Amino acid sequence: MEDKIPLPHWKKALKPVLATVTPLVLLPIPLAVGTEASWVGFLVLWMCVFYVVEPVPLSVTSMLPIAVLPLIGTLSTEEVASFYLNNTGLLFMASLMIAAAIESSNLHERIAFKVLLVIGHSEASVMLGVMCITVFMSMWMPNTAIATIMGPIVITLSAKMALPSYHQVPSIECVKINGDAMGDGLDRPLEADESRLLKENHNMLKKLMLLSVAYSSNIGGTGTIIGSSTNILFKGILDELFPHSTELTTATWMLYNVPPMIVCTVFGWVYLRLVIKYKRRKYSDSLNTRSDIRADIRPQYDKLGRVSFAEVCVLTILTALILLLFLFKPQFMTGWGDLLPHGRKMKSSSPALALCFLLFVLPKDPKNMHSSEPLVSFKEFSSRMPWGLVFLFGGCLSVAEASKSSGLSAIIIDTLNGIRDLPSSLVLVLLCFAGCGLSEIVSTYVVTGIFTPIISELAVATRVHPLYYLMPVKACCLFAFMLPIATGGNAIISDMGKLRTLDMMKLGLAMNICCVLIHVASVNTLGGVVFDLHTFPSWATKDFGLPSSLLNGTLVNATVATTLPT
């Protein structure tokens, strides 16, 4: 009997086959139809299959528009190439520059240990502190970096919290534990049962503390545009689809997203605390562990030494970046960008990169100017820069523009007859759960790149404000709490804690459902205040340039049926 070929070998063998067969299978569609829209549809389907199956890397798939769109005459090579490094890509670079500076200066560690020193008096407060720190840093740094930073800290803290209190009643028959994984310096004899319970408690606490990092890093990414690269991609696609829209800025993004972000974080903390209490119900009366771990955190904080010049500079630049982006063109008031004589030509990447320029100029040690390195070296930045995402951004943006200019968007709108008749609130719930579910198994970049144009087309067709659907769905695409493969942060946390996929799925399901419902409630309350979602904007129809048959027929009939709930 022949040995079976291992699955990884099968995958490698299938990749060139899929890469060759997929376009050949799809090619009859445009050949039979013969329209420009059908050729763009062929490209979209080709890229979607490649994005899901990944016979080649995502960034390589994203190069296809450069070759195909000029060939079919939809866009010129210069037009397609302009999407690969525009305001979206430059803003993404700026966010990674500031993230590299935070890591290089160890500012993140000082913030983390300082917060835990202040509130680390109980197990519950430590978990809340960890989640708040993770959420805040995730607003400005990539999730994978946050997981890498906070994971080891959480493992150490959970080991300290799982140690027994020193005032427990001495045992009779005992097993002595010296230098155990539960912590060093534990010389008090423990009963065998107590030792087992302590280990169970430690493993449980470590896993749930690590999950708190995974949950809060995903939640924190919703708070700012630069909090996640998919947010930047979403904003870029939106700017291409609706160039006359001015409603979504850094300020309005934060005003809308930060409140539900806080609610989701608090819910996650309460939920995990209830899980801990439930898992301890069997031995809560017989096991007494430490609560105040500030004495264990103090040495870690002291190792950082005095606040350095680099930390002060990075914190100052980060604060200035937040203020400049927030007050650039906030819409609800006159921003500093509106006051400039040529402010209409400026976008958010300009002030962001201007501040980040200082990171490469200011020295880490001003006392040794001749030998000091800058706050961030270009080598540090380039080593952290995922250049493949630049191609991914460009591929999604160029396809979105090609779909609109070729008329494919109008065709998609005309095929959405069934959804048009549904109440907008129900459609919103379905879209949010669909985005959340797909993000568990498909890259969030792919979900964002595919969903954003389709949902925009649906919103215009049903005369619903596009942001009513887009903002909550975009947030829900980041709520991938169930699977290790869903996000890089999940994978890192799962590996650190040796978490079983089944455990993550059972605990993450409740988080997914509740966070989705929180955002559905938020868009129906706060969304109307921030974005005036009860009024269909004139720029939506204008920017899509829909044919008159759609505007005069379906859209007019759908106006009353899809009025947003008040």
UniProtKB/TrEMBL annotation:
GO cellular component terms listed in the entry, alphabetical order: plasma membrane
Record membrane topology: Multi-pass membrane protein
Subcellular location: Membrane
Cited Pfam families: Na_sulph_symp (PF00939)
Keyword Transmembrane helix: yes
Single GO term (MF): succinate transmembrane transporter activity
Keywords: Membrane, Transmembrane, Transmembrane helix
Tree of life domain: Eukaryota
Main location: membrane
Residues that span the membrane, as ranges: 12-31, 37-53, 83-103, 115-139, 208-234, 254-272, 307-328, 426-447, 467-486, 507-531
Family label: Belongs to the SLC13A/DASS transporter (TC 2.A.47) family. NADC subfamily.
Protein name (database record): Putative na+/dicarboxylate na+/tricarboxylate and phosphate transporter
Lineage: Eukaryota, Metazoa, Ecdysozoa, Arthropoda, Chelicerata
